[in-house]
Fold this sequence. Notes:
CATH architecture of the largest domain: Beta Barrel
Distance between the termini: 71 Å
Number of helices: 3
Oligomer: single chain
Largest sheet: 9 strands, mixed
Structural class: mainly beta
Order of helices and strands: EEEEHEEEHEEH
Amino acid sequence: MAAKKEILKKATYKMGNGKTGACVLYSDGTIRVDGVRFSYPHLKKPYAGDDGGEAKFGVVGLVPKGPQGDKVRKICLFQIDTLLKDNRIKALPADKKFIRDGDESDKEEAHGHWMISARETRRPPLRDRENIPVEIENIETVFEPGFWGSILIRPWFQNNKYGKRVNAGLSAAQAIWEDEVFGEGRVTEGELDDTFESYDDYGDVDGDDIDGDVDI
């Protein structure tokens, strides 16, 4: 029987839905972060990314800056520093840590947030707001980009041919409340094809029988 993990550090705060959430560091080194907004959730199928590396399940959790973000970042950095000390590393650049400044991202939705990146080779356990396991066929609708929830991450130290860094494994995730889906309301190229007309050199609509008239 596995030993019950203990709470080493805990910080509470108000989440975006007005409820109280927490960031908790457990004795097994995992960290639970409540009130993160899911960005790039790849939880149904593993994703290799643009670099063509090993395909993994993962998510980027966006933590709003302010009281919540300050507390979450403090606990994450504490565990990062612990891992660095254990491995006799004095410091790492900011881009070598699993929590980064969203204001430095080219993604607009990350601005004003701290970004927590977590990945795992195997699909992690996933729960809905009632703490019920999410079936595979429902993952994409329960964990849409832009929805909010909690993540349980497992920070670990990497030291291999790719360099030194502190990554985070994704141990579990829970969806709690819905919000506007990232990208919703943006017009796709296909929709533009159906919306705008194509004009010839004379300013007439291509394929129109009558000059100056647009079929409606």
